[in-house]
């Protein structure tokens, strides 16, 4: 079984703080996506990273793909209550779409 | 609004019963994916259809089956329901048959088996 582990599992922070969540795999993957799922809704794609060492920015969110393409991180600067949700990483390729265990983030106003 | 619709939104049924969940993909999307999300298991991929044909299979139980119809809507059939089948069931669609293409998720169907 190919594991895709996310850490931390739960994170509760105050508005304005910075945070980083991680996604680690036991094997190399050619691309990875990050999704955010808000309570009561389906996941929404945030970003796709393909190249080892790649860094992508989406406003206050910075996504990094590890050089060895076995890990990825998501850094949020100055977190806001609207960032609250479940952050999921998804690995490709393969016929089996593989979601990580998720990090549940709560940003307290 | 992702453009993916799922019905019903909530479903409560008894053990041993059979239910059908329905999904309509975004206009123009040929791929439909089904996922199960439970509290202790995270988001589990069940099955994918592309243009009416089964494309990939994940952790789908034999009691579960799915199909995609010529108009591209899809149904997920769950039979001999057990308490452990209680979960959120999501449908997603994408334009291509590759899982690497962006998937648009529906709002989900919450199934409660009592």
Question: Could you explain the architecture of this structure?
Answer:
- The complex is a heterodimer of chains A (109) and B (114).
- Chain A is mainly β and 109 residues long.
- Chain A is 0% helix and 55% strand.
- In chain A, the strands form two sheets. In chain A, strands 2, 4, 5, 9, 10 and 11 form a six-stranded mixed sheet that branches.
- Chain B is mainly β.
- Chain B has strands at residues 5-7, 10-13, 19-24, 31-38, 42-50, 53-57, 64-68, 74-78, 87-94, 104-105, 109-113.
- In chain B, strands 2, 4, 5, 6, 9, 10 and 11 form a seven-stranded mixed sheet that branches.
- Chain B starts with a strand and ends with a strand.
- The mean pLDDT of chain B is 92.
- The A-B interface holds A 31, 33, 40-45, 48, 88, 92-102 and B 2, 4, 33, 35, 42-45, 48, 55-58, 90, 92, 98-100, 102-103, 105-108.
List keywords for this structure.
heterodimer; A: 109 residues; mainly beta; six-stranded mixed sheet; five-stranded antiparallel sheet; 55% strand; globular; B: 114 residues; seven-stranded mixed sheet; four-stranded antiparallel sheet; 11 strands; 0% helix
């Amino acid at each position: 079984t190919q594991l895709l582990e996310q850490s931390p599992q739960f994170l509760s922070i105050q508005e304005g703080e910075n945070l980083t969540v991680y996604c680690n795999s036991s094997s190399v993957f050619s691309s990875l996506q990050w999704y955010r799922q808000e309570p009561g809704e389906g996941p929404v794609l945030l970003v796709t990273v393909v190249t080892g060492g790649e860094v992508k920015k989406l406003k206050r969110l910075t996504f990094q793909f590890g050089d060895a393409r076995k890990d990825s991180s998501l850094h949020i600067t100055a977190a806001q209550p609207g960032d609250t949700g479940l952050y999921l990483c998804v690995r490709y390729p393969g016929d089996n779409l593989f979601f990580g265990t998720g990090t549940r983030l709560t940003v307290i106003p | 609004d992702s453009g993916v619709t799922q019905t019903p939104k909530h479903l409560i049924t008894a053990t041993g019963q059979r239910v059908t969940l329905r999904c309509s993909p975004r206009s123009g999307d040929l791929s439909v994916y089904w996922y199960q999300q439970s509290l202790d298991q995270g988001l589990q991929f069940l099955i994918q259809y592309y243009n009416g044909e089964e494309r990939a299979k994940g952790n789908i139980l034999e009691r579960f089956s799915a199909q995609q119809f010529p108009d591209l809507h899809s149904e997920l059939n769950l039979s001999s329901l057990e308490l452990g089948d209680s979960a959120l069931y999501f449908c997603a669609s994408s334009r291509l048959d590759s899982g690497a293409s962006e998937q648009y998720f529906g709002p989900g169907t919450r199934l409660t088996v009592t």
